[in-house]
Each structure stands twice: as C-alpha cells, then as structure tokens.
Amino acid sequence: MEHSIIRVENLSVCYHADKRGSRAVNNVSFCLDRGGSLGIIGESGSGKTSLAMAMMGLFKKPTRVDGQVYYENTDLNRLSERERNLYRWAKMAIVFQNSLDVLNPVLTVDEQILECLRRHTPLPPREADKKVLRLLKLVGLEAKWSQYYPHQLSGGMRQRVLIAMALSCDPEVLIVDEPTTALDAAAKDEMIKLLARLHKEKKFALIVISHEMQVITRLAGRVMVMYGGYMAEAGLTKDVLKNPMHTYTRGLIHASPSANPYRDLWGIPGEEAGNSSEGCPFYNRCNQKVSDCKTKLPRLAYVGIERRVACNRGGIVTLLTGENIYKSFSFRGKTVKVCDNCRMAIRSGEIVVLIGASGSGKTTLASILAGTLAADRGEVLFEGEKVKGNRAACRKNGIQMVFQDPFTAVNEHLTVRQAVAEPLDILKQGTKEDRIQQVKQALKDVQLPGDDGFISRKCHSLSGGQRQRVALARSLVMEPKLLIADEISSMLDPSTQANILRLLKGLQNAKGFAMLYITHDLALARKIADRVYVMQQGSLIEHGSVPDVLSKQGDGVAALH
Amino acid sequence: MRKRMLAKISEYLMTLLVIITLNFFIPRLMPGDPFTFLSSDEGQVTVTYSEEQIAKYKAYYGLDKPILVQYTSYISNLLRGNIGYSIYYNDHVSTIIGKRIRWTISIVIAAIVISSLTGIVLGSLSAWNRNGVLDKGLYTLMMTLSEIPAFLIGIGFLFILAAKLGWFPLAGGMKSFANYSSFADRIMDILHHAFLPVLTLSVVRLGEFYLLARNSMISVLTKDYMRTARAKGLGKMRIIFRHGLKNAMLPIVTRVFLSLGALFGGAILVENVFHYPGVGRLMREAVMVRDYVLVQGIFLLVAITVLTMNLIADIIYRRLDPRVS
User: Does A403 reside within a domain?
Assistant: First the structure.
C-alpha cells in the first residue's frame, strides 16, 4: 500500500441525498500504483463517471460523497475546496468524455490550456506559451490549432486537446473517461495508441473508464468491472477477460465485438433492478441466482491471486464435472475404447462445444455426462451431486438432452401436447391446465404455434425442423440448467439449421442455461462456443477458448479443418 | 459573409421603408388637422381659423394635394435629408428634435447601464445560489416589479420621493432661470432632475435583465465546460466570470441593444410623468396639436433607433460568439 499513489476507500456517491436519493456508486475501494494502470468497465449507468467525478471532488450538494480518496497519504475529501484545488489538475487530472460542450465554446484552445499552466505552474508567460505548443505537438496537433475555438475542431481533435489540457501540469494521476466515444474505428485506434504512448512516456498512473473492451485491454493492466454502482469483479485484465468469474463480466465480454470477432453478439438480457439496497444488484439478470441472492448483498472477496469477485456463489459456478471417464465397448471379443480418461467441466451459463470427427466418442461421452449411460470408471458430478441413472434428468432445473435425429427422438404417435408435456405428466407437476400453459409457453419459446389446433396434431405430421423444435420444447419445460444438444442441427437443411441455432442461442441467452453442444462442424463451433473441447479417438486432446484451440496446429485440430 | 451582411442590410432597409410609409399615413388617420389647434394650447380658449385661412395654410403646407402626391414629396424630401418643417413650432423638425434628444438619450443610456449591470449581478447571484433564500427573495421581487407598468412606478416615485419627501424636484430637466455658480453646480442640478426618470426607467427594465441573466447563468452553470473548469482547479472568480459569465453574457448583450429601442418607448411615458424635456414629451405635444411633420419626424427617429439597435445587436452577437460566423 505504501507505494500506491491513489487509494480509494469505500467511496459512495448518492445523488439527491436530501430526498431518498439514488446511489450511483457503492462502497468502491481500489488502489493504484505510481505509473500503474486501471481500467473501469461497465454498461452505461454503472457509476463509472460518477466515480471519476467523486475522485475529482466535483459533486456539490445535494449529492453526497462518502468514503476516502487518498492521494499519497492525504484524504482529498477532507480538504477544503481551496486546498483541493491545489491537487486538481496539478496532481490529478481528468479527460472528460468528449462532448461538444466539454470545452468552453467562447475561449480559444490556447487560452483553455494556458489557464491551467497559469494557475498551477510558476512558468513565465513566454515559457507557458511555448509549453502549450509543445503539448499540442505531443498529442499530434499542429501549432495553428491553438488559436481555434472548440467548435472548429473535429471530435478527434477535441479529444486530443482534452488530453493535452489534462497533461499540461504533468499530473501524477490521469483519469480518462470514455476516450473513444464518437470516434470512428481508425481514430479510435489512434487514440488508444496515443494514450498508450503517453502513459509509457509520462509515467502517470492511468485510470481508463470505458464500456469498450478493446480500450481496456489495450490500456489497462488491471480492470475493475462495475455494475449498478458496485464493483462486480476486479483483477488483472488478461485474467478477467480470459476467465471471467462474474456472470456480468462474462455478459460484457459476450457483448463485445472486439472480443468476439467470429461470434454473434448477445447482450445481457434484462434490466437493472430498482434501487433496492438489499440483495445482489445483478439479481434480476443473473443466470445462476439462488434464493439467497435476493436478500444478501455479495461482498467483494478474493477468489484467487489478484482476483476479486462480488458474488454470493463465489463467481460463476461449475455445474458439471466429469472426472477420468473411461468407457469401452466389447463386441465379439474386440474391445473398443470410446472414452479414455475424459475430463470435462461446464460452468453455469456457458456454451461448451464438443467437437470431433464421427466416431470419436462424442455421443458416448455426452450420454455418460447426462447419466443415461454408465461409465466404466470415473465420476460425473452435477452441482456437486453424483449423476447416476436419470437422477439429474428427471427433475426440474437438471440436465436435459436433445438428440440428433428428430424423427426417432419424438414418438410420432403422440400429439404435440403429449410429447412436450410428457416429462411434466410423469413428474405430476401442477394441474392439467398448468401443464398446458407450460407447454404453450415452451412452444412459444421455440417459435411454434401454441394454439389448440397445433398442440393436438400428431407428431408424425410435422416436418423435421418442427419436430426438432418440439424436442427442444420438451426439454425446456423442465427448465434445465444444462442442455446437452447432440448434433441437433445436422439432419436439417441449412436454413432450418440456422433458425434452430439462433433460436437455441437466443433461448440460452435469455434463460441463462448452460449448454453442451456436440458437433463436427468447426464453423459452427466458432460461431457459438464459449469454450471448445476437441475429441479424437476417445480422448479430449485440446480444450480452451475457440481462437486459442483453433489456432493450434495439432493433428487432431488439423483433421477438423 | 459579405453577401449575408448585404442581405441583412437590405432587409433592414425594407423594414425602414415600411415603417416610413406607416409613419406617413397613421398621423393622417387621426381626426382633426394641424390648423384646428394651431394657435391654441391645451385647456385654453380655442381660437379657430376661418375656412379661408385654413385653405390658405393647407395650400401653403401642401396638405391640399392628393395624399399620394404628399407621400412622394415626403419620401423625396427624406432622401434629401429634409425631414420637414414643424407647423406648430415654426422651426425645422431636425432642430427641434436635436434640442430635445440629448435629454432623452442621457436618461435612456443611464437607465440601460444601471438596469443591465444591476440585473446581471443580481441574476448571477441568484443563479449561483439557486433555490436559496436570496434567490427566492430576489426572484419574487423582480417578478413583481416587472409586472407593474412604467407610468405607475413613475407616479409612485413622484408621489413619495418628490412630493412627500421632497428629495427630488417634481418636474423638468433643470431649474428654470437658474444662475449656476459653477459648471459642477449645473451638472449636479441636471443629475438631480434626472434621478427619478432614470430610476423609474431602470426599475422598469431591471426585472427583464435579472430574469434573463438568471436563466442564462443557470443554464450555463450546468454545462460540461463549467465542470471542466472546476476540475481544472481554477479560482472561483475565474470560473464564474471568465467561463460562466462570458457564455451567459451572449443573450444579455443582445438584449441590452434590443432594449435600447424599447426604452425609447418607455421614455415617452416617463418623460410625461416627470415633465422631462426630452423627445418623449415633445411627441405628446406634437400629437396634441396634430403637427404631422413633427410626429413623423419623431416616429422616424424612434424607428431608426430601434432598427439600428437591432442591427448592432446582430453584429455584436456575431462578434461575441465564435460559433456564429
């Protein structure tokens, strides 16, 4: 702690504190070393800018700021406005989010930079004039722009002027708020490069606020994820992005185009809950919430080295683990090893793709994981419980499986209602009317008509795509936490396949279940997978994120290409 | 830029022509004519002219000609810079107005300076302490003031400060037949006489400037650049004046010039209340005796003043706000 330049402790911001105001920042604490860098990421309204404003001490009544902001060992929040002015800009400067009004429209660029120098440095006028030009050069602007008014500059130039202005008094700490908003892709890239270069040259401690993943990854060594004014997760940027521990962080990553060059983008469903102080702020949108989460506010706790997460369940939980699974089949005295020491872990809410050539043992492994097939050796745990027989499949919130062939997977003599309601009927869930309602809802979810005419049709009268969707609806009525989809689209034509996949991914995103998707199609894996396992002749030979695994040049992967 | 300026100026010239035309016709729509009242003062026994005399005078002043002929000769005279010869005062209109205009100009300018400066200071104070006691008090006071008509305020001051307390003279621009011992004495006397008219005019305009300054400052205070200025750790004075007021001033400055025109109108009322020897009172006199030529002259002056002020406001705004070019 001794060498940290800025230390924020339990900082809270409450707007309109006089009349039951809303809290924009809640007990945020962090520290930053001299010359270090910290990214703050979160959706808009997550309190990032409020945090920066509070650090600069820019709030006035009726906004209340609690907690401490230490610069070296001085608590800035205890200083008078006059004393604090000695720290502003001279020690800690901010680059505000670029807007037309962020610079004073009636003053020239020159005057706006010069006034900082006059206020905080003892430079004689001539030196100060020179310094303004040096600063402009530093951020890549020609000297002539100093005489211009803000409205005569482009958005990118204004951003540069803001940076030059912020660096004018050589601050030790620089806060940069959304440095790339309103910039086109090329300008964005340049801006990030410029900030990276300045950070390296000037050695200030950098705090970057952004909702853009690529800004954070390229500028910040550590990252803090904010949600609803709370810190959701904090850690080294690389670790956090590679292996998010909070469901919110994962959602952000999935929504980021730069982190997902191949995949479809999916936002985090749902809206932030109202401003209740009880419970987890992410409760409404979390896919692994338990009843506790509604009442218990999670504390930011260490879950690893340099890694903290605020989750009642200690971060994203592992739903299913398969340990050392062996399976072989004997046929006429010949033994074929189908699963050889397979290990697999599936975390809640993620899509794991198991990829491999036909006959590599994918379906066998999946059946063992689902409990429909017993392994020779090894064990499968679902939410900490052993998976045995249909124990995990015959209950709500368990494991459900959808199979490759829609024609054999659904009994063609049953009506749609019977087929979909079958698990409910077996479990005797609710009244008959309830069940029909659930069936209709499930059919609606899979985009099939839910009218009485349709549900009383026999399954044999349906097309392959419809029957596959009926099978899907049958799984969904059980509200599974894990859905195992075994080549569910391979027997469908490309268009129906695309529809089913988008439907499935949409449902997965909205309902938040985890999915094990089995396929031999590499392009498909790239499109949907969070993680991928590669199976070859009964062994899982590779696993990891899609770009990592697919870039490896192993034989097994090469064979898939 | 130049093209736009030219367009602007021709726009103003067109407006002026319309005003001159109205200016010519409106006095002639009033009942009566100059000769009914030529030799009589208000309240005195009216000495009337005979039919013959009236016809003679009408012919002398060209009033017997068709109205369109009169109009064209009026315009051509104007173009030659001749605004006419007063029927009642028997003198050139320009000379008569010239003698009176300085009185009006001085009280109008004094009033605008006082009311705008006070309004800006009070308005800024109000905005800075928004919703505080000071703001609420000032706001109520100003709203009330701005609703009272000018002549009522004038009469109020006249009753209390001049008639009851005797602090200020009741009427006139300076003492009649006074022998001043020094130049300073003379100035003091003039200021003494001007005080109430100026005060009245200032009070009348104050509310407007106050409200404008307050609103303008309030909206400026919420702007991002004010936050930037505070983040830069600048002094409070620099933040308020250099960053705040410079932006807030834009609408205020234009309003100052626009008000100058309106204030001339206000001056007519106030000068009559205080019997002040300015153009305002002159106009009333001219209207009373149907001195078309003089009325036209005064209207023309007021119209030109208002238009010029509008033009200046336009130009100044361009100068002040770098965004308008």
Answer: yes
Which one of A54-63, B39-48, B92-101 scores highest in mean pLDDT? A54-63
Token pair recorded at residue A476: 């969904």
Q: How far is it, in rounded angstroms, from Cα A336 to Cα A221?
A: 49
- Chain B closest CA to A40's CA: distance in Å? 20
Helix spans in B158-291 (H) = 183-221, 224-231, 236-237, 246-273, 279-288
For B134, the token pair is 């000071």
The parent domain of residue A408 ranges over: 319-560
In a 3-state reduction of DSSP, which class is residue B296?
A: helix
pLDDT tens-digit series, residues A93-121: 999 998 888 999 989 999 999 999 999 99
- For the segment A247-296, what is each residue's pLDDT rounded down to a tens digit? 999 888 888 877 777 777 778 877 766 555 678 888 888 888 888 888 88
For A329, the token pair is 């089949």
Asked if residue A289 and residue A395 are part of one domain, the reply reads no
Exposed, middle or buried: residue A17 (CB in 10 Å: 0-12, 13-18, 19+)? Answer: middle
Q: Do B234 and A115 touch (CB under 8 A)?
A: yes
Q: How confident is the model at residue A555 (pLDDT cuts 50, 70, 90)?
A: low
Determine the Cα–Cα distance for residues A513 and A481; give it in Å rounded to an integer: 5
Residue B304: burial class (beta carbons within 10 Å; 0-12, 13-18, 19+):
middle
Residue with tokens 């205020």: B252
Nearest to A67 by CA among A81, A59, A78: A78
Within A98-184, residue ranges assigned H as helices are 109-120, 125-138, 155-167
Token pair, residue B280, equals 């305002």
User: What tokens were used for A389?
Assistant: 């027989």
Q: Give which of B232, B237, B319 to mutate to test A binding, by max A Cβ within 10 Å.
A: B232
Query: Is residue A244 one of the residues assigned to a domain?
Result: yes
Which residue type is seen at A205? A
What one-letter code names the amino acid at A331?
F
ipTM higher than threshold 0.85 = no
Q: Are residues A361 and A215 in the same domain?
A: no
- Digit-coded pLDDT (tens) for A332-386: 888 888 898 999 999 988 899 999 888 888 999 999 998 888 889 888 998 888 8
Q: pLDDT: is A12 or B266 the higher one? A: A12
Query: How would residue A553 be classed by pLDDT, with cut points 50, 70 and 90?
Result: low
Q: Residues for chain B: how many in total?
A: 325
Taking contacts as CB-CB distances below 8 angstroms, the residues of chain B near A120 are 233
Spell out which residues of chain B touch residue A151, defining contact as CB-CB under 8 Å. Answer: 322-323
Distance CA A533, CA A59 (A): 51
A58 neighbourhood in chain B, CB within 8 Å: 227, 230-231
Contact A226, A51 (CB under 8 A): yes
Note whether A267 and A350 are same-domain residues. Answer: no
Strand arrangement of the beta sheet that strand A385-386 belongs to: A334-347, A318-331, A377-382, A385-386
CB pair distance less than 8 Å for B242 and A115: yes
Number of domains in chain B: 1
- CB-based contact A23:A12 (threshold 8 Å): yes
